[in-house]
Design goal:
Radius of gyration: 15 Å
Largest sheet: 8 strands, mixed
CATH topology: Aminopeptidase
CATH class: Alpha Beta
Shape: globular
Helix content: 25-40%
Distance between the termini: 27 Å
Length: 180
């Protein structure tokens, strides 16, 4: 399958995920922090990871024109995480989502990727309002959202979830303070 690079920053390339990224996705989905803060997706095999990608993210590209993207370090192409846009049931607005493997947290990659995705959402996709949801105990993610100009609005409960989560929205129209 072709590598479809959607965005580039100084250090990162964000490209569409494909079923060939199943091993990376399997590792990410089973990372203890992912399971704790985002949820257990029940994906335990490469075949399940391929199916998860095909029915979720890859389908979102066709349906919505956006989705989650694989975040790779340039120039070597090391996969470090995912970042992108999600249209979730139960939310009126498009949601910013991201997750990174443990070895690549705390290096500014999430901030760099998320800022690029927000700029792309406004400039290329014409989206006026982007929100984000986060588990109440995920302080690192909350700080990142605040650095991006998002502020806590209210608690929400998404369909099929037992626990309420925090909804963050822009305090002003989002214009990231970063160049991408």
């Amino acid at each position: 399958m072709d590598r479809v690079v959607v965005l580039e920053t100084e250090r990162l390339a964000l490209r569409q995920l494909t079923e060939a990224d199943a091993a990376f996705m399997l590792a990410l989905l089973n990372d203890p922090a992912f399971v704790r803060f985002i949820g257990d997706r029940g994906v335990r095999t490469l075949d399940e990871a391929r199916g998860y990608l095909a029915s979720g993210t890859v389908a979102s590209y066709a349906r919505n024109g956006f989705g989650l993207y694989l975040v790779e370090r340039k120039p070597e192409g090391t996969a470090v995480g995912i970042c992108g846009l999600v249209k979730r049931d139960g939310l009126d607005d498009v949601d910013l989502g991201y997750a990174f493997l443990p070895a690549f947290r705390g290096r500014g990659y999430a901030l760099e990727a998320a800022a690029a995705v927000l700029a792309h959402a406004r400039q290329a996709l014409g989206l006026k309002r982007i929100v984000a949801v986060v588990s109440p105990g995920n302080e690192r993610s909350i700080r990142l959202l605040e650095r991006l100009g998002l502020r806590f609005e209210r608690m929400v409960q998404l369909p099929g979830d037992d626990d309420a989560i925090k909804l963050f929205g822009p305090s002003e129209p989002i214009v990231p303070p970063f160049t991408v």
